[in-house]
Amino acid sequence: MDMQNRDRTTPDVHKPTQKHKSATGLDVQSVLNIQQNPMVLIDDQYRIIAANQAYQEAYGVQSDEVIGRCCHEISHHSPVPCHMRGEDCPHQAVFTTGEAHDVRHIHYDHQNHAEHVRIRGHAIKDQDGNTYLGEEIIRLPHQEEDITCGDMRMVGRSPAFMKCLHHIEMAGRTDASILLYGESGVGKELAASALHQFSARASEAFITVDCASLPETLFESEILGHERGAFTGCLGRKRGLYEMADRGTLFLDEVGELPLSMQAKLLRVLETGTFRRLGGSETLHADVRIIAATNRNLLEMAGQRQFREDLYYRLAAITIDLPPLRDRRDDIAGIAAVLLERIGKSWGGQWTLSKDAERCLFAYDFPGNVRELRNILQKAAALADGPVIQANHLNFTGVIPAFEAHAAASPGAVRDFGTTASVTRGGAQPDDLEALLRQYQGNRRRVAETLGVSERTVYRWLRRDA
Ligand SMILES: Nc1ncnc2c1ncn2[C@@H]1O[C@H](COP(=O)(O)OP(=O)(O)OP(=O)(O)O)[C@@H](O)[C@H]1O
């Protein structure tokens, strides 16, 4: 907290340490001091009752400067509790359920520097039965702030993203199957890789199966492998992707695109962990953790008999939703900066965004999410005649960014491409693919219908572009 700038009008509440001491017969301060991590005790009105020595040292404050102040004022510099700003609030959780609650937050120190922290909230009772929140704050080293997957970083600081990151971190530590939900380009593959990084399998293989582009005829040989001579033209023995993921993770991307016949075969393998290579007689076993991703509602598909319900439950022990970029606009500038850094490295240049360009991006709805942001930035960097990208370098291909739309009194207006877009049946990718995706809010099925091609073809075009 910025102690210099703190709100001096905050009511001077009772000094609860004394009250608490007499109720429990213990000196709360010295009990908290045993804890090596920063720790605070908070009452049901969000007021800090006590802060341990580690907390005072970490945040450069004296305990009498924080006692009686609201926790959200101190750690978030916010006049309202964090759940009112869309965050996962340990105070709300502990006082509602009485259960311990872990979250990942961004806190601000006394110099207003943001830092990533993990918070463990515990319910603590006094002798009169009153509940308090004991909050242990685990400060994350700088390098753990963004999750790194190879040379990629999962960037974001918005409440929605922090919530999602926390779920990824927690779920990653289990060995359960995980189903990632999210629109196209939202970062599902990156999240799958982060889940693997968090798991005990991190040093083993992470194998991706692109379910949308895997031809039905090759499913068995690709997933299960084959023996020499298993089919015409098959010269050697090959291990399948499932076997290659042994002791590691198999990521089933776009699992909703799997035809029913393949779903049955996949389920059989996942249920038993055993398989036979095509043309082989030996039963083999692999220990594989499954992560799957989709942008489709698999339960709805199950209702329409397009997806096997038993496979759904096998895949979705834990489900994690990845929020679309328009629901975490505060992340746009940070992600754009990282993407421009990446573009600069691979193209040998350096680009930044002008304030106007940043505002423009902030106002845009990004139906294609982070992938679309990356494409827009690539085009802008190519168009810019200097190191600064201006608003007029950003090409939104027919979609009016919300702030311009407000001026035009037609928010979110989209150019109507109708069904007359330059249709390509199966061959080269049509020029209007991106525009159609925007028009249909990333719904690839509708784009495919409009273009008269299969969803898989649309998917393949997108992958080629990625
Ligand atoms: N939080 C993020 N920070 C930085 N880059 C990101 C983030 N999320 C996604 N990206 C980048 O955006 C691009 C698209 O991400 P990714 O392929 O993981 O999306 P997806 O949801 O799997 O898409 P699809 O559904 O089309 O397969 C990638 O280049 C990825 O590195």
Describe the fold and architecture:
This protein has 466 residues and is of the alpha/beta class. It folds into three domains: 140 residues, PAS domain (Beta-Lactamase), CATH 3.30.450; 174 residues, P-loop containing nucleotide triphosphate hydrolases (Rossmann fold), CATH 3.40.50.300; 83 residues, Helicase, Ruva Protein, domain 3. It is built from 20 helices and 18 strands. A five-stranded antiparallel β-sheet has the order 2-1-5-4-3, with helices on both faces. The chain has a five-stranded parallel β-sheet with strand order 9-12-15-8-16. Strand 13 and strand 14 form a beta hairpin. Helix 19 packs across helix 20. The longest helix has 16 residues. It is globular and about 80 Å long. The protein starts with 15 loop residues before the first helix and ends with a helix. The relative contact order is 0.08. The N terminus is likely disordered. Adenosine-5'-triphosphate binds next to strand 7, helix 8, helix 14 and helix 16.
Q: Short summary of the structure?
A:
By secondary structure, the protein is α/β, with parallel strands linked by helices.
Task: Provide keyphrases for this structure.
466 residues; Rossmann fold; Helicase, Ruva Protein, domain 3; 3 domains; 5-stranded parallel β-sheet; disordered N terminus; binds adenosine-5'-triphosphate; ATP-binding; Sigma_54_int_dom_CS
